From TrEMBL:
Keywords linked to the UniProt accession: Cobalt, Cobalt transport, Ion transport, Secreted, Signal, Transport
Cellular compartment(s): Secreted
Annotated gene: Gif
Name of the protein in its database record: IF factor
Taxonomy, superkingdom: Eukaryota
Amino acid sequence: KGNGMIGNIYSMGLALQALEATRKFYAPRKWDCAQAFSVVSAHDYQQPTAIAQVLPALVGRSYLDVAGLDCAASQDISPSRQLPLSPMLEIHGIPRAHIQVHYSITNTLQGKHFHYSTSVTVPSGSTLLRVMEVAAEQNPQTFSFQTEQTSWGPYVTSIHGLAASTDDRTYWQFLSAGDALDKGVGIYKPHDGEHIQAIFSTY
């Protein structure tokens, strides 16, 4: 893409590793790695899997380099110098402001079509998963959903009783202002007044 993105933010780590590891095979074709690296540098990675995939590329290595690493040379690193990747800041005892998020679910793909909308109020900084939970608590008949835990965080497998299927190549896609979200439901934090759409889609 023109902004340096390769696929999406989750595929960037492996894509950068692949491009660096195979650099000599696509020369003399020029690849603007600086633009791609600026994309990953600006992103706030939080899932361990995403961090594990992007870190090798950021230090100029790939998973292929593991076979040649000298582990003995790294034993002298003091634990006090090993800084956390993303420090978590918690503020206790201070009430957070609340936001209102509009949430809709739509199926025009299979079986009986449906479209339902609701507005929920959650504390500022809540994830999309929390928005979905509140919607399901308020109206379980309509907004119930199921997830499965993956290395990338919770993955929505079913909404309103309609399950995604690899056989049918269907999944629940989440959008904001018509654009697919670049983070999972367990990480993405909607802003006040935002409209999140869950649309049953095919790939």
